[in-house]
Design a protein that fits this description.
With 214 residues, the protein is an alpha+beta fold. It has 2 domains: 129 residues, no CATH class; 79 residues, Roll (Endonuclease I-creI). 38% of the residues lie in helices and 18% in strands. The chain contains 7 helices and 8 strands; from the N terminus they run H-E-E-E-E-H-H-H-H-E-E-H-E-E-H. The strands form 2 sheets. It has a 4-stranded antiparallel β-sheet with strand order 2-1-3-4, covered by helices on one side. Strands 5-6-8-7 form a 4-stranded antiparallel β-sheet. The longest helix has 16 residues. It starts with a helix and ends with a helix.
């Protein structure tokens, strides 16, 4: 799994400029290697531009590539802390409403109590909404497909019309090249597989061509 591609994909589905670092100790991390590894602790984060506050969360990658996106979404919704504007509606204690705060004050709110943060359900709604956006199709074509030993897989956790359209474009691409591919869902239906059964290098070359023409 290419780190750069997965990083771009999670940016698209969350709308946040996350970068993937590898956790080296409880307080330190470094930029992740070019390939994401299974069963590895990563720190998913970004630095706020005005205050320099680093916001993020730990993500333990699962055993197999097919579980990566599902695992990431779970970690994002459970661990990521971002201020909820609605939490600042009550100004009875002398606080400011969210719309009255300066950009720097809004960044500082990332350090407030957890009760002021977006809920797990709200974070999941953000992901679901982005999967409903037409822009997700472009992101999936560029970053959602990945090469495997069996062929090509695509993350299809939310099977919106844009996800199905990206899958159909891969199907037509392979048909045009007269490449027979057996199609199937993974057991948990988190990934859709195009089983080409040649060599991984060939599968990678096909993906590069597919991305270039779409």
């Amino acid at each position: 799994m290419k780190t750069e591609h997965f990083q771009s994909l999670i940016q698209a589905i969350t709308g946040r400029p996350f970068e993937i670092h590898i956790r080296t100790s409880w307080r330190d991390s470094r930029k992740a290697d070019s390939e994401l590894m299974p069963e590895t602790r990563y720190f998913v984060c970004y630095t706020l531009p005005l205050t320099g506050i680093c916001v993020g969360f730990d993500w333990d990658s699962p055993k197999s590539d097919e579980k990566f996106l599902r695992s990431f979404i779970t970690a994002f919704s459970k661990k990521y802390l971002e201020p909820s504007p609605a939490a600042y509606d009550d100004t009875s204690l002398g606080g400011k409403k969210w719309e009255d705060r300066t950009p720097k004050e809004r960044e500082s709110a990332f350090l407030h109590h957890r009760s002021n943060m977006l809920s797990r359900e709200q974070l999941l709604e953000i992901v679901e909404k982005n999967f409903e956006s037409p822009q997700i199709e472009t992101a999936l074509i560029k970053y959602g497909f990945y090469e495997t030993e069996y062929g090509v897989g695509i993350f299809c956790y939310f099977q919106t019309r844009h996800v199905l359209s990206a899958m159909d474009k891969m199907r037509k691409f392979l048909d045009k090249k007269n490449i027979a591919a057996r199609e199937e869902f993974s057991d948990a239906r988190w990934v859709y597989r195009f089983r080409i059964e040649t060599q991984k290098a060939i599968h990678l070359a096909l993906l590069k061509e597919f991305s270039a023409i779409n």
